[in-house]
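Retry 2 of 3 after timeout on previous attempt. Resubmitting structure tokens to design endpoint.
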């Protein structure tokens, strides 16, 4: 069952995780001036991420990489333009206007300038008016290029599916990630004196940020679904009693200042296994294995900090509200610390 669970997590999250990794590595190479290396990275993630595709287009368009890439220009920018990106439509029109990477075609230039202009793209409006209302030839029509890669990227993504005039509203930003950390678990409700024991947890998450516009205005609320494999338990004298859970938690996060947040949400755990099978408590022996297959429900509380680069850290407390089994009144009590990465 564990193998099935982790296989599902890997298959579900890996495309977007790898795409974000390639993009981050490509952005780093751009900052180092390695444009050829950046182009290779952007090419790997362009099918999952329109931003990667546009980054690659701009490297080629601004002639920062080898000329042989220029034949790929139209294959890269056309799908973005067809999706409705005004910025992509403007650059595709400019290519037809100049005959850059494609054969010169006034009609297609006007067609794509018009589509971008309908989304209030100011440069497209100016060029459309010039082409339609003057005798200036395509060879002498000025085409305004991007000042920088970062300037264009800020405009391309919000416009990929919505017009410019509607892009001021926040959107839902979904970011997958992973988490790992330490548990300091114990139980309450026992008629003996159990000790806390150290355990661990590892899992996958998705950070759903509401009202996101950009890094300066990311919104203050988020939902954080998590799936974890956790080792909980307690100690009796020197004997470690292990409780291995597969759990799901849905946190509501409130960002207080920048990346600092508090979070709380319901928790549900399924007890995959226990060890040892038999434990001795004050003399009598109990079948500890009878707990296997039980459900645990409770509330999880926490505080954390998400950095802008993706690294996240936090501390939490799991308050079990259900008994571990009908004949055991024990309830989980688990402080924990975690680190992770949100892509």
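Retry 2 succeeded. Sequence:
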């Amino acid at each position: 069952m564990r193998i099935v669970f982790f296989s599902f997590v890997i298959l579900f999250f890996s495309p977007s995780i790898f795409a974000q990794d390639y993009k981050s590595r490509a952005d780093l190479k751009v900052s180092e001036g390695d444009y050829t290396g950046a182009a290779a990275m952007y090419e790997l993630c362009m099918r999952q991420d329109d931003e990667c595709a546009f980054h690659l287009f701009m490297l080629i368009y601004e002639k920062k990489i080898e000329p042989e890439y220029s034949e790929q220009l139209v294959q890269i920018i056309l799908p973005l333009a067809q999706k409705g990106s005004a910025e992509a439509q403007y650059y595709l029109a400019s290519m037809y206007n100049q005959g850059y990477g494609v054969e010169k075609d006034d009609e297609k230039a006007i067609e794509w300038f018009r589509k971008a202009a309908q989304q209030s793209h100011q440069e497209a409006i100016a060029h459309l008016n010039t082409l339609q209302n003057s005798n200036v030839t395509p060879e002498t029509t000025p085409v305004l290029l991007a000042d920088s890669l970062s300037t264009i990227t800020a405009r391309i993504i919000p416009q990929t599916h919505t017009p410019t005039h509607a892009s001021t509203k926040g959107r839902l930003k979904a970011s997958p990630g992973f988490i790992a950390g330490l548990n300091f678990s114990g139980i309450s409700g026992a008629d003996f004196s159990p000790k806390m024991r150290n355990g661990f947890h590892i899992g996958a998450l998705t950070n759903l940020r509401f009202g996101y516009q950009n890094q300066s205005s990311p919104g203050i609320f988020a939902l954080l679904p998590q799936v974890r494999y956790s080792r909980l338990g307690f100690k009796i004298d020197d004997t470690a009693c292990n409780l291995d859970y597969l759990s799901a938690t849905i946190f509501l996060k409130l960002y207080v200042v920048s990346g600092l947040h508090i979070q709380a949400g319901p928790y549900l755990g399924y007890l995959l296994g226990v060890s040892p099978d038999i434990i001795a408590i004050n003399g009598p022996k109990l079948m500890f294995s009878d707990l296997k297959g039980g459900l645990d429900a409770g509330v999880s509380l926490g505080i954390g900090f998400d950095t802008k680069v993706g690294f996240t850290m936090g501390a939490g407390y799991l308050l079990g509200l259900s008994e571990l089994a009908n004949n055991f009144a024990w309830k989980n009590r688990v402080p924990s610390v975690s680190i992770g990465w949100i892509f």
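Attempt log closed. The chain has two domains: 2-166, 171-342.
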